[in-house]
Amino acid sequence: MHEISQDQALERDVQLFTALLGEVLREHSRKRVLVIVERLREGFMQLREREDAELREKLMKRIEGLDAQTLSEVIRAFTIYFGLVNTAEELNSHLTRMDRISAGERLWVGSFDDTVRQFQEDGISPEHFQSLLEHLLYLPVFTAHPTEAKRRTISETFRRIFLVGQDLRRRKLNDEEIEEKLQEILTQIQILWKTDEVRVHKPQVIDEVRQGLYFFRESLFEAVPLVYRFLEKAVRRAYGANHGIKVPSFIRFGSWIGGDRDGNPFVTPETTELAVRMYAELALEEYLERIRKLRRMLSHSSGFCQPSPALLDSLDTDENYWVATMGQSLRRFLNEPYRRKLAMMSHRLDANLARVRARIENRDADHVSRGYGSDRDFLADLYLIRDSLIHHGDASAAAGPLQDLIRLAETFGFHLVHLDIRQESTRHTEAVTELFARQAGAPFYQAFTEEQRLMALSETIAHPHPFVIDKATLTPETRETLEVFEVIARLRAEIGERVFGQYVISMTHAASHVMEAMLLARLAGLAGKDRQGWFCNIQISPLFETIDDLEHIDQVMGTLFDHPTYQALLKASGNQQEVMLGYSDSCKDGGILSSGWNLFEAQKKIIALADDRGVSCRIFHGRGGTVGRGGGPTHEAILAQPVDTVHGQIKFTEQGEVLSYRYANPETARYELTMGISGLIKASRCLIEPPVEERNDYLGIMDELARYGEEAYRKLIRETEGFLDYFYECTPLDGIALLNIGSRPSHRKKADRSLGSIRAIPWVFGWGQSRHTLPAWFSIGHAIERYRNNDLERLAKLQKMYQDWPYFRALLSNTQMSLFKAEMRIAHEYARLAENREQAESIYRLIEDEYNRTLTQVLNVAGLRGLMEETPELHHSLARRNQYLDPLSYIQVAVLGRYRSEPVEEKREEWLDPLLRSINAIAAGMRNTG
Predict the structure, then answer these.
(1) Which residues have C-beta within 8 Å of that of residue 488, sequence separation ≥ 6?
(2) How far apart, in whole angstroms, are the C-alpha atoms of residue 722 and residue 842?
(3) What is the pLDDT of residues 852-881, one digit of tens each?
(4) Active site members
(5) Are the C-beta atoms of 118 and 129 separated by less than 8 Å?
(6) pTM for this structure?
(7) Angstrom distance (rounded) from CA 253 to CA 82
(8) Are 583 and 620 in contact (CB under 8 A)?
(9) Which residue from 585, 600, 624 is spatially nearest to 506, judged by alpha carbons?
(10) Which of 14, 47, 857, 887 has the highest Cβ tally under 10 A?
(11) pLDDT tens for residues 236-263?
(12) Which of helix, strand or coil describes residue 489?
């Protein structure tokens, strides 16, 4: 049988899944749904190939003639198609990678194999490579943004299809077995068709916590140990068997789910407590299951091997624990030391789990036996078993599932994730103002200058008894703000010191904003000064979000670093400062060029400031899923950071739909983690050799481009009359606000039609739905054209920048993807929804002109004839979706028109269902929401 290419295999799978979906529609949908789906798909494909006004009108009439229920079914068919295409692509990518690994050839750029070989070929010694590894920290932070449209139930069904598809491709099956597998896929597609992909109720915060837990349980517990194994293999392959390099556990996970209260009134102190315990519960459940499996496996008899003295001593200690707890000796496994040890460990973990569950259920936990005091004690027992097995020549037994469990325990502890808490700066200012006002003879805090505020805050933090507080007299807001810090203190004692990550302050405009939070931490006993000196058990990460804040970041951080009280607290907490940079708001504020460049410059400023003062500094990148919110491929994004700013550590948010695409399947999670970590290793090379500095002429050109870009962007969104009306009326924003996809409101203030009121996420989501994708590219064409000024030498310079400089290359690569996802003809259809058609038409023309200008300039600079020529796989993937995305967009335009124009409330509600489903479907098709 002849081999087929990767592209042919993928197309075959897509055709198979599509044919099976067709069978389900034929048998189980309303009359004519399959025919309508096919006619619309074929018609809009023809329109992509050549414009035909008559055909376009005919197709629109067909859509407008359909009732709401039929339209809903048509939309659902398209949604399932996108899910099946995503599954086929993910499956084929995984199998292609496995084939390359099996062939034994050098692997793809971004693989550990290619990365470590490159280091070895460049003459990096094992000692230097070891030093680099020891500095690494890779920390993705999971967030629940109001754009993750896929339900967990749907994810689980697609996972089953993935696994059956893998069997079909990988296993040798006879005809009967193949038929059975095809029937399994057909059954799952039928289940999808009869499962509502739109949530009936808006998710609660705890629902979002469960959604986050899904990725750990179903994927990451399997993927993480394998990532370490692959890195160890790559090191062995490049440096030889006796290289002496040890790969430390440097992957950690953070979360905002249950901790991010900025703009979300549903995240209360009680919610945070429950979330932390749910995270701990899952970690303990996983460890218990693995301990039980190890107990079945490590059946060594003391008659045939001699455990290490340390293990035997620990068994004596365990016996004392067992007698004290159970009132008798453990009679089982007397001659099987590892089983005996693991039985004791299992009992301790059971006790830890029972305590956590008792607290989740608000039951008294005092009667439950103590269990492990900390995750370090649990790890110490695992190390004892490993070292003892090695001691009597069973290193291979230590290197299997036991080593995987050690990796998990080192990565996840008893807390699973480091939960970040986020709150907006004004909440702290209001709380501190009220607390000062309640003290006899205290001055009015809000009347103070910044210098006076810092002095008052410092004195109060250092005071042994700063405030007399009667909680009952405080406003509910201040009481809740204080309770959050008390929850942090309580849960650190209950679960472990590493349970919380950073306390993030959004909209940080001044140094006092950080010191206010530090004062509130002082009141909860988390920081302050005692007889031993300063102590600090909280780390505060100021978040700089707007263009203005990014430009003044050095003033705020310089003031903090030079402030004696903050210096002392920082040193007491480990002398590491984290600074968070917000991609979303800065992009909404100043456009993609200005935002990206100000973020680039801000990183350089803050790292230089910290280096001057001997402070270790980590940048926390608040990236979104879409390019308009800082998204894009992680490997390239890390390499595009400023030279000598990634000092072994990277922390970034994984938002919305990105979680499903990257982490729902363990096979894909492995790949995504590998690509990100290899990017981190390459970007951290500055730790072991002098970095190559960025060229000053390139930096100067980017300064100029960013300035031109910001002017053009602000002129459009702030100076163009009716522009915000265009956004509200020519995107499905009203539907997005009603979609049950997140616990967080989409607006800061209801009924406020202003740029400040709309959140950055729905801003990007709305433009994506209406096929403008404007935040990701607008003003780039203008800036390049203005800089070039028809000068061929300047074009040559930009082309050289694109080839040489990872930052500029990533910028224009991401721009190409956003331009490809945009569709101006369809965007024009949305423009017809505006109340003031004439005004909307002129705004649309401004956008279309800039789109064409950006398309021309980007292709010229990149030296390409068509968008995404350099990434053909991604090009084919997006093109494959367009045949279903185009009809969906036209359906959404028609439904929006009906929904908005229907005066009778009851009839209007009929159109809400297809509207919400169309938003879900387009999000799935573009593989982007916010």
Answers:
(1) 421, 500, 503, 521, 524, 526, 538
(2) 10
(3) 999 999 999 999 999 999 989 889 988 888
(4) 145, 588
(5) no
(6) 0.91
(7) 29
(8) no
(9) 585
(10) 887
(11) 999 998 889 999 999 999 999 999 998 7
(12) helix
